[in-house]
Design goal:
Helices cover about 35% and strands about 25% of the residues. The protein is an alpha+beta fold. The protein is globular and about 35 Å long.
Amino acid sequence: WIIQRLWPAWKHIRMASRTSRMLFVARLHWTVCENTLREYFSQFGKVKNSYVVFDKNTGLSKGYGFVELDSVTCVQTALDHKPHVINRQQVQVRPHTDTTKSRRDTTPMQSQDHIPISTD
């Protein structure tokens, strides 16, 4: 009962801490892949995850991606470093927020996290 009531709040807190360790990377050259992002951002700390968003119809990069670093300190180090140049192209790097979510994340977080509470 208590777990059912607290789950949405706990999940939101967990996602918030993960989000604060994520970076949104824009203006990527079309040849940049997840491994390229991982290699580049590893100079700022351990990279937990990286991905580039591709168009599912054409298979081409949409020109942006996400990088999750090991800690908030690593994220701040990456944000303080300027300019960022990947594959001879300057890219924009900023903290990942709800407004920089991937377009495939169309379901609101609250509806994903909702656990029905029984009234028995």
